[in-house]
């Protein structure tokens, strides 16, 4: 499915308010009879300065889409741009640098280093890259996230919500072009989860960041500007200014299709979108090891 910006000339994403773009993005795992088509010729534009959520049943390709857009995974066919840079075809070393310099990552498991305090965790990726943080920006991030009084605390001395805020600050610290968040509230209670979603929202509204978030939670998706719905490796729908109820209703339709297939026995269950997963917590192991991601170095 093409978003309205699809008419723009390919490869000119930087100037036209598109933070990331994919055309014909196809990803297959394995080969022969065991091959899985995780993404099936996806066209998508991620608008700059917006908060985009990616939803869909379990196995629909959400994490794969995020990993391919972030240059964490190779593609089988198609093209991906980050800003004006086509990343498909880049060598691993160039990709590593691009991820390090231009992308921030947040995962549900936080991935903080236990022996470092909050301040050290926040700047670690930049320290490894030999980059000096922009102190004014860093102060703004720390104050926006309410971490000023916690900077000397180590992760074990912080609540889950505070740890995720540190992870959020770490993702924001280098002022990346794009932040990818994979189930960032998956390990948090609802209050802490709401807090983190509020901060991601503020990062977009007040700090001008671009956020892409994979989630199973309609309530979390309601904090975004736009929800992309994936099924069977394709973007099948999108929703502007989502509400939790509207997202839930849309997600139920995936379940309905599955139930129809199950109920009639007319077709194989596997021909329907995979099992619905509203509210299902994500699995910590299904993202790429984030130590590779957050601590990228040459
Ligand atoms: N490394 C891999 N090897 C083989 N198949 C894979 C691999 N990673 C993902 N897949 C398959 O690709 C499809 C899409 O997986 P993906 O993790 O992107 O889905 P998802 O929508 O993020 O799922 P979930 O909501 O359960 O996390 C699934 O059928 C999955 O089994």
UniProtKB/TrEMBL annotation:
Residues 20-257 form the ABC transporter domain. Gene3D superfamilies: P-loop containing nucleotide triphosphate hydrolases. InterPro entries: AAA+_ATPase, ABC_transporter-like_ATP-bd, ABC_transpr_LolD-like, MacB-like_ATP-bd, P-loop_NTPase. GO terms for molecular function: ATP binding. Pfam families: ABC_tran. Coiled coil: none annotated. Transmembrane segments: none annotated. Residues 288-298 have a biased composition (Polar residues). The keyword Nucleotide-binding applies. It comes from the Bacteria. Residues 264-298 are annotated as: Disordered. Keywords: ATP-binding, Nucleotide-binding, Transport. This is ABC transporter ATP-binding protein.
């Amino acid at each position: 499915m093409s978003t309205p910006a699809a008419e723009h000339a390919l490869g000119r994403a930087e100037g036209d308010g598109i933070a990331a773009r994919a055309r014909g993005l196809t990803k297959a795992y394995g080969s022969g009879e065991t091959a899985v088509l995780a993404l099936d010729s996806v066209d998508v534009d991620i608008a700059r300065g917006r908060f985009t959520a990616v939803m869909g049943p379990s196995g629909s390709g959400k994490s794969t889409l995020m990993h391919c857009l972030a240059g964490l995974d190779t593609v089988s066919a198609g093209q991906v741009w980050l800003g004006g840079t086509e990343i498909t075809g880049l060598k691993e070393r160039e990709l590593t640098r691009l991820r390090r310099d231009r992308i921030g990552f947040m995962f549900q498991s936080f991935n903080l280093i236990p022996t470092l305090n909050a301040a050290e965790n926040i700047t670690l990726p930049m320290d490894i890259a030999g980059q000096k943080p922009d102190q004014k920006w860093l102060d703004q991030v720390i104050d926006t996230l309410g971490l000023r009084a916690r900077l000397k605390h180590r992760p074990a001395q912080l609540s889950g919500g505070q740890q995720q805020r540190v992870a959020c600050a770490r993702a924001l610290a280098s002022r990346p072009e794009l932040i990818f968040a994979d189930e960032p509230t998956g390990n948090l209670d609802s209050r802490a989860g709401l807090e983190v979603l509020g901060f991601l929202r503020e990062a977009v509204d007040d700090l001008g960041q671009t956020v892409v978030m994979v989630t199973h939670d309609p309530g979390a998706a309601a904090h975004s500007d736009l929800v992309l719905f994936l099924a069977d490796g394709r973007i099948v729908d999108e929703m502007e200014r989502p509400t939790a109820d509207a997202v839930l209703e849309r997600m139920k339709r995936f379940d309905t299709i599955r139930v129809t297939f199950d109920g009639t026995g007319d077709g194989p269950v596997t021909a329907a979108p995979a099992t619905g997963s509203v509210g299902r917590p994500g699995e910590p192991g299904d993202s790429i090891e984030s130590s590779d991601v957050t601590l990228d170095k040459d």
